[in-house]
Amino acid sequence: MSDSLETIATVVMITGSALLAGITFFYSNTLMPALAQRPVREAIALIQKTNVVILNPVFWLAFGGSSLLSLGLVISTFFRLDRPASGLLLAAALVYFVGMFVVTVAANVPLNDELAAVDPESPAGAKVWERYRARWIPWNNVRLLSSTASVVLFATYLIRR
């Protein structure tokens, strides 16, 4: 990868990581605490709807594009570790890919799928909701910390290289 292309990819990753950090921050800081103050059936119904609405082209561009680009940076940087500050770039891309993409696919999406299958009005739905909140929020916080850390690491790489 040329220096110019690497710079562009890093700036794109800073932008994508920051966008996803903002989304995950909103969920952990605002949406989930607000839903905890609502009746369970309302909370379930709102999250079910939110999980459908968020899957739009802009989200896919930010999430999917950043995930693919971070994987590409992991691969290309791995073969160029002799370059100045390349360890920072590799760390940034790995932190994002594992902390955002892998955690989303392995933890948050299965929990979302489980919640999508319940009736918000049912007693079973209330049980799933409590289990969902107890598991989903900590995993979302991992995504928040990972995407935020990757912004810092990508920016530090640009400064130090």
UniProtKB/TrEMBL annotation:
The chain crosses the membrane at residues 7-27, 58-81, 88-109, 142-159. It comes from the Bacteria. InterPro entries: Anthrone_oxy. Keywords: Membrane, Transmembrane, Transmembrane helix. This is DUF1772 domain-containing protein.
